[in-house]
Amino acid sequence: MGKKTAREWFMEGYRHDTIHMARDKAIEAYKQSIRFDNTLTDAFVNLGFLHLNLARLEYTRHRGRLAGPRREEISKRLHFVLSLNPHNRKAQRLLDTIEGRIDPVRAKRLRPSSQRHSECTSLYRARWQPDPWLTRR
After folding, report:
1. pLDDT at residue 107 above 60?
2. pLDDT at residue 57 above 80?
3. For a Cys-Cys bond, which of 9, 43, 74, 99 suits 32, CB 3.0-4.6 Å?
């Protein structure tokens, strides 16, 4: 059998990520996929989510003992996620918390998702205008 294609590497990473829960193998497979085809958006997205989830897991697991290598590892993962998507608020908030720019207790209180949802809904309702073609009789 020949060499694997970018899509085959991606599918291997996906299997490791979702079925086998072998995150290190998934990361390597996604990286191989990107090496073969750097336009494969799915590999970048999944790799970003994997790094974000691992950073959140490490932060939660070692919250009181974030010193030295652990902090650097989490920070490195979050910087990678932000290099893919600079607007990722979860990654930015966790990075700010880890680097001491924001208090962890305050971070949880910043506009809960239900409040953001209601703000978006009211904004949508305020801007929505019925289509005159649909309301004609």
Report:
1. no
2. yes
3. 9
**Cβ density class 50-76: b for 16+ within 10 Å, e for less:** bbbebbbebbeeeeeebeeeebeebbe
Which H or E element spans position 42? Answer: helix 41-61
* Calpha distance 108→116 (Å, rounded): 14
Mean pLDDT of 116-120: 55
Higher pLDDT, 10 or 62: 10
User: Three-state DSSP class for 50?
Assistant: helix
pLDDT at 66: 75
- First-last CA distance in the chain: 65
Residues 30-36: contacts with CB under 8 Å, at least 24 apart: 32/4, 33/6, 33/7, 33/9, 34/6, 36/4, 36/5, 36/6, 36/9
CATH no., domain 6-135: 1.25.40
Could you give the CA distance from residue 33 to residue 10 in angstroms, rounded to a whole number?
5
The pTM of the whole model exceeds 0.85: no
